[in-house]
Amino acid sequence: MSHKSVYAVAVSEGQANQIVDSLTRAGFSSNDISVLFPDKGTTHEFSHEKNTKAPEGAVTGAATGSVLGGTLGLLAGIGALAIPGVGPLIAAGPLLAALSGAAAGGAVGGITGALIGMGIPELEAKRYENRIAEGNILISVHAVDGDQVDRAKEILKNAGAEDISVTSLGEVKAHH
Fold it and tell me: Which residues pair with 137 in a beta bridge?
C-alpha cells in the first residue's frame, strides 16, 4: 500500500480552518492532517526563551493550543518549533514529528530538508518553505488510496488553496 500525501498552501488561518473542517467532514482523520505555519503570536517571548533555556531547534509544548483557533486546535500533536534560519513555527499532525526530528538533529535545510524527507521534491519543498516564511500555512493530508487523494485535492481546490501537490513516499514525483 502506498502512502500518499496531498500538500497545499492556505493564505489565512480562516481558510486553513475551513479546509481542515471540510477534510474532517469528508472522513479524513484529524490524525492524518498536518498544518505548519509561522508563530507570529509568541515570536518575542519564544525567541527570548530560546536564547536562555531551550537548545537550538528545541520543540516546546508551550500553550500552543490557545494559539490555534477553531478546528486547527483539534489536530493531533500540536507543538512549537524553532528551526534555525526560519524562526518559531507551530506545527500539528504528522509534519510535527518529521520537523521535530529535523530540529532536534540540527538538520541543515530546516523545513525544506524535512519535507524532502517526506517525499516532496526539492523544488516544491523550497517553494513551501518560502510560502511559510511569507506567513502562509502549509496543510497536508495523508491519503490511503486514489479516491482519498482525489477527494482531498477537490476540497483544497474548492477552498482556494494554492500550490496543491501530491507525493508518495518512495516515489519522489509531484502530480498536478
Answer: 10
